[in-house]
Amino acid sequence: MAESSKRQRISRIQNILQNASPVAIGSFVEGSIRRITMKNFLTYDYSEVYPGPNLNMIVGANGTGKSSIVCAICLVLAGKTATLGRGDKVGLYVKRGCQKGFVEIELNRNAGNLVISREIHVENNQSIWMINGGMSNQKRVEEEVKALQIQVSNLCQFLPQEKVGEFAKMSKIELLEATEKSVGPPEMYNYHCELKNFRNKERELENVVKEKASFLEKAKQRNERNKHDVNRYYEKKRHLDVIELLEKKKPWVEYETTRKELEGVKMEREEAKKQLSALRQSQAPMLKKIQQIDDKLKPTEAQLKSKTAAIKETSVNYKRKQDHLDQKNKEIDDIKQNLRLKQTEEEDHQKRISNTRRTIEDLKSELAKIADQPDVTPQINAVNVELRRVHVERAKIEGDKTDLRRENDNITAESKMLEKKLKDMNNMMNAKEEKLRGRHRDTHTALQWLRKNRDLFEGNVYEPMMLVLNVKDPRYAKYVENHISFHDLRAFVFQRKDDMEKFMTEVRDKMDLKVNSICAPEESCSKRQPSKSIESLRRFGFYTYLREMFDAPEEVMSYLCFQYKVHDVPVGNDQTKAIIKTVIEEPYLKVLFTTDERYTVKTSIYSKKISTSNSAVHPSQYLSITVDAVQKQQVEQQMKTCASRSREIDEQMKALQKEAAALDRKENELLSEKKRLSELKGKKRQLEQKISTKQDSLKQMEQSVIDLKKVEEVTNKKIKAANLQKVTIVAAIVDQVKLKAKLTMEKVYLALEMAGLTAEKAKLENDCREGASEFKTMEQRCSRLEQRKIQLTEQCKGLLKRAKSNCRMQPDEAISEDLRNAFSKLPDTLDEVDVMLNEERSRAECFTGLSENVVEEYNKREQEIKVLEKELQIKTDALNAYRQNISEVKERWLNPLKLLVEQINDKFSEFFRSMQCAGEVDLHSENEEEYDKYGIRIRVKFHSSTQLHELTAHHQSGGERSVSTMLYLMALQELNRCPFRVVDEINQGMDPINERRVFDIVVRTACKETTSQYFFITPKLLQNLEYAEEMTILCIHNGPHMLPPNEWNTSAFIKRRLKQKNHGGNP
């Protein structure tokens, strides 16, 4: 046995109904599997499988390699590892200890069988592809597989063990697409995709047509509104044209009027010149004499002005000398005032000396009175002792208050720190809730309902596990999440089963929420001990069990220990990874973790052979946010303690404040008494000091007496000097007065002379005033007429130039005949032109808010409207064409689809009726035009007392979902256009009755000649099942104690078993 175990084991799947040659009843359809070869693949060293054309029942114990055949089919047909739901790297499917693996499949094809080979290399997860022995690539393999209508990614055709649960999770839309691809005509799915694309384009065209129609309507409405403004604009323009013509004619009227006025002024000016010449000849002698008098008056007037200036200068000098004299008088008054001040100061000095002497006498008298009073020093000392005692007590109270304040500050700081800590914990809990709401809103809604209605339940009810689990170290969160499914992480945990049923009735049935709930085991499992102590596993690199990595409430931990064996799942490090081959040979290890991988170890109950699967440990998404519930309670308790101690300190502070106030009152009384005694003790000394001070002051005052005689002598000298200066100033003043009198007399003589000449001139002027007035008037008239002539001449030139400029004429150009005719229809006088011009302007001004832009915009919009109408017609035609296309494609797609669904429903309902249950399949759509919302709805009923419910991942039990999935797939079997179908261990969750019924349906359906190849994988079969001749039963015998394939004789084995059955003997 030892020698045989060392040899390479070669296991071969034998067909117990046939010999080694691959011959089967029936015929293979296009694309069905004729042969599967595996070398160094998962559990196989080398094996060849020859399936039959109809139903292939693959039977074998767990761990022997049934699912390995499914993996081989998927990977060799270019399927993704994600389809299998096992290892995510293709290198993980190579047998442990080997560097490469090999898978080959032979597909039936009328034009010659197709052989596809894939060689998988572990080192770099690369593959080498071959087709019919020649090198190829994955893209070409995918094309060949697609041409044979093989879809390993379609759950309706290929359902691996790990994906059985996902079938019920498929949405109605996904199920429809999978069904179309699996059993519909090749063009059905294409039509569906075309319809979805057509519908999207139809929506786009509808939006475009709607937008253009709306824009067109708005443009028409705007133009209709603007049409009235356009009419008003043209009417205004007619008035403006008249105004323009009037403004052109007005300069011509003004010019003509001014020209006529100029001719009249010229004639009037010539007549005035003649009259002026006659007046000038008659006034000439008298004017000559007046001129002579003017010649004499001018020098006299100049002398008079000179005398006036000299008199003014003399007056200024007089004023200056008078001011100097006043200054000297003021100086003498100031000297006398200083003398009087000195005399007054001396009188005050003598009074102060007298008062000081009296004060000294009074103080001496008072000192004599108090000389016999007793000493108050002992009383002051007693008061000082009492004050010191009060100060000591006060200092003690202040020290106690300081200590209390310091303690209160510390408590306040600690409270703030605890409050921040509690807030951070609450924020982390809120973050976990937000993650739950984002991932599964129904669970979050149910959580809110539970918090409001927790009093409805009798036992403990816990929120979803992901909220109550507290990982001790965020680094451990990934292990917990990878071990516990999200299905359970979002589950509510109940202590009592009746509470759970009540909860599910409310949230699932009434509120239609998809939630999970579990009930904790009746007997607590939270304290279960692991199979081995962690100390005994440290040699493998294990450092803890999964249970020790997190905290959870009692019932939650009990469920996790019962369901997930968290107390018996060790966690290791890189050392564990390095010796993983040794570790997995330990018989007590079922699930374990290394630093970055999770390993599941299974031991076959038949062969005792160990099989392992591993997967990468994904980063944590939910549990990395940790909040220690115990720590949170401790923080809340500490905050309460701090608040209580703070209140106690406040009370103690108030008591100390009262004591301090009493001591303050006592201190004030003692200080008042001490002040009184001190004043009494120091009064005698103060009196002596005052007497001494006053005597010193008296001596100083007696020494500082003013000598009034000396002061009077100095004052008299200053007054005498000032009087001498006054005499000099008075003499200068007298000289100025004499000079002013002389100049004044000379001025008077000149004034008399000037008056005589002026009188004579006035007499002459009076004589000729009448003639001069007439002459001057005539002269002024001539001047005015000359100026008027010049003005009118320039005005005529300007008006003519402006008139021609307004009419856009050249300077030498004559007015045109058209313009003359237009002017002839207008008034000829300036007033009439102004009246008509004002009238036209008033009418034009009535049309406010109008501009040429209104007309331009109106015309532009008219062109846009024509363009829009044309574009709208084009888009409308395109939309109608699209709708016609949609209608045609819809008819080609929907009618066959409805017929297909009816056929599926007939089979599905028939299968359910045969099981005394009810089920139906229908085509579901909320809106017939929304082609991307069409889906297949499966509704089932397993109990007569219930209604038909839609098949979901939450409403039915696991066994019910398996039955529904299996029967739907069987309903597709006869309609199937795919060459084969694979279903792996779908009967695991079924009860025996349903399993037997489903098996009978599978046999009846899959063994018909019209159906394609079918693979049904199961680890067990019920007894006394009915089999069909068309079936091929493939038993997997794979293990260390099996015979080599060259020693296995199928015919001999069958004969021996038949002989044993007939004779009832032992083998």
TrEMBL record:
Residues 198-282, 311-435, 646-704, 754-802, 851-892 form a coiled coil. SUPFAM superfamilies: P-loop containing nucleoside triphosphate hydrolases. GO terms for molecular function: ATP binding; ATP hydrolysis activity; single-stranded DNA binding. Residues 35-241 form the Rad50/SbcC-type AAA domain. Forms a heterodimer with smc6. Component of the SMC5-SMC6 complex which consists at least of smc5, smc6, nsmce2, nsmce1 and nsmce4a. GO terms for biological process: double-strand break repair via homologous recombination. Keywords: ATP-binding, Chromosome, Coiled coil, Nucleotide-binding, Nucleus, Telomere. It comes from Cyprinodon variegatus. This is Structural maintenance of chromosomes protein 5. It comes from the Eukaryota. PANTHER family: STRUCTURAL MAINTENANCE OF CHROMOSOMES PROTEIN 5. GO terms for cellular component: chromosome, telomeric region; nucleus; Smc5-Smc6 complex. Belongs to the SMC family. SMC5 subfamily. Core component of the SMC5-SMC6 complex, a complex involved in repair of DNA double-strand breaks by homologous recombination. The complex may promote sister chromatid homologous recombination by recruiting the SMC1-SMC3 cohesin complex to double-strand breaks. The complex is required for telomere maintenance via recombination and mediates sumoylation of shelterin complex (telosome) components. Required for sister chromatid cohesion during prometaphase and mitotic progression; the function seems to be independent of SMC6.
